[in-house]
Amino acid sequence: MKDGIIIVVLVTIMLLNGMDVFVDINLNVPIWHVLGESAIVIISGVAAIFLIYDLRLRSKSLNSLASQLKDADSQIQSLSGKIETERKHYGQVIKAQFNDWGLTYGEEQVAVLLLKGLSLKEIATVRDTKEVTVRQQASSLYSKSNLVGRHEFSAWFLEDFLNFK
């Protein structure tokens, strides 16, 4: 908007001074005056052309950036969908492993909350049970999974993600 106004002002200056130059030539005004006004016409015309050129370059650049942004947004949407699909699949794998270990519903709840990083006290609060009950369920799930403690339990599920190739 601001550039458009500046272009209009420059073109107006160029046209008005151009007309003044023609009038001054017909009136036999001194050459130094005609040359000065001619310089104003040329400078304002060059400035207007430069500004139009710059405006077009910025417009192309913005259009290119908008296109890149649209492509990136599409890629993000695609990846988000893939991530959601894989997250659900991984949840099913975890659930299947809990079933293979023969965990009870309460042990599964404790196991999920342990995987999320909650402490036994926090798990008891979330599940509205006593901490002793949570400790017993955690001990039972470690026993059924043949894993020793929360670190080994969590590592069992994360190990495949940490194999870099």
Summarize the structure in words.
- There is one protein chain.
- The protein has helices at 2-26, 31-101, 105-115, 120-127, 131-145, 149-158.
- With 165 residues, it is mainly α.
- Helix 1 (2-26) packs antiparallel against helix 2, helix 3 (105-115) crosses helix 5 (131-145) and helix 4 (120-127) packs across helix 5.
- The longest helix has 71 residues, at 31-101.
- The chain is rod-shaped, with a radius of gyration of 38 Å.
- The two termini are 54 Å apart.
- The mean pLDDT is 90.
Quick synopsis:
By secondary structure, the chain is an all-alpha fold.
> How far is the N terminus from the C terminus?
54 Å
Give the overall form.
rod-shaped
Total count of strands: 0
Low-confidence stretches: none
What does the radius of gyration come to?
Answer: 38 Å
> What is the helix tally?
6
Keywords for this structure?
165 residues; 0% strand; single chain; mainly alpha
How are the secondary structure elements laid out?
Layout: H1 2-26, H2 31-101, H3 105-115, H4 120-127, H5 131-145, H6 149-158
